[in-house]
Amino acid sequence: MSVPASEAPARPIGVIRVLTSEDPTAVATHGTAIEERYGLPTVSRCIPDQPHGIHDDESEARAEPKIVALARELADAGARALIISCAADPALQETRRAVGVPVIGAGSAAAAVALGLGHRVGVLGIRDEAPPAVRALLGDRFTASARPHGVHRTTDLLAPEGPAAVLEAAAGLVASGADTLLLACTGLNTIGIRPLLERRLGIPVVDPVLAAGLLASYAYEA
Q: pTM score, two decimals?
């Protein structure tokens, strides 16, 4: 007997985490944020052997084949679309070639949303330079980039002094002329810093996880 469309199990959005964790709640953090914001079903998985995620060229290169392999697994398991939950958009083009479903990079998604909100976009991340994918999309709307003091890896954001360092760096970007902030590390979603930044600084702050979820909502309806 066929199952009516309204009762068919939903095909989830696959969320690829680039920070390795054995804690299923931690792995699901970004997927949970997307579910709560957009009402989309998600399934979250993390790549292996990267306890500090992606934070430099070497860690990105190690992660790329793992991302592609995990994307294939999620697509084969029925994911309707995939999100690479990293603002560097690692292996984005390779993953798109490897699977037959839409693939969204959190960095380029955030840049697209930022372009719709402001004219002078400041980029706040964990590297000294803005991720190339983000910088390329922003073009002449890019104002400046900043890295919080003492933060070099996404796990550094979890330190007690992490939020204060993020706020200080963000305030510096606003002082340099930014009218919109782009959070260029998905770990900034994990620590829930966006509402605080918007309250304190009074300008829009684009969260890359929520931006990716927004685009996934369009892919989900297609």
A: 0.92
